[in-house]
Amino acid sequence: MSCYRKLTVYLMRHGRCADGDILRGRTDSPLSEQGQEQMWNAWRELCNHLPEGKLRLLSSPLQRCSLFADSLASEMPEFFESPLATADWLQELNFGEWDGKSLASLQADYPKATAAYGCDPLNHTPPKAESVNELYQRISRGWSSLLQELLSSQQDNALLITHGGVIRTLISEMINPGKPPLNGIFSGLELPYGALLKIEVDAHEVDGDWECLPKLHWQL
């Protein structure tokens, strides 16, 4: 016996932050007013394209994501199946000793290391930082867990409010499954603040096992 489900997962990047051009990983930066407006604009755009059924709302615990997600859940509860939840796997890459430092100061103090990291982040990791491969393993486990939770709960739609590194890793997984992200995903892909993407997943159950085939959509 077989069964078919279509899951829809929306990815929203947080808006611009108030503390300028820093290497912002686990640094818990607040949104600027512009950043808040970018996220509300993304939400209004998403409302024009939502499928039938309520959303599961899941956010990074860092405040540039979670405070907006909390406002969304509080002000628009009719859109969501369950209360807001946060997930550690949706946190940004941890840049270790470089985290929170200005890009200008890093380039001035460590010109060779920052150039190497910018060109080839898979093989160059800042001191005491999370490697790109570790990021990939974290995101891969979290994504698989999310799909299983949706399939088990009979929910078909979710909104993830997260970070650029997480979204880039998921993009890479959609187009190059089972392998760490390509360098170009980080260095050559523009992902603006408030960016909104969609992943549709065709899920087929055969004899109790689900096979999930995701497809990335650049346009909602």
UniProtKB/TrEMBL annotation:
The organism's place on the tree of life at top rank: Bacteria
Coiled-coil intervals, chain numbering: none
InterPro entries xrefs: His_Pase_superF_clade-1, His_PPase_superfam, PGM_Phosphatase
Protein name: Histidine phosphatase family protein
Organism of this sequence: Shewanella dokdonensis
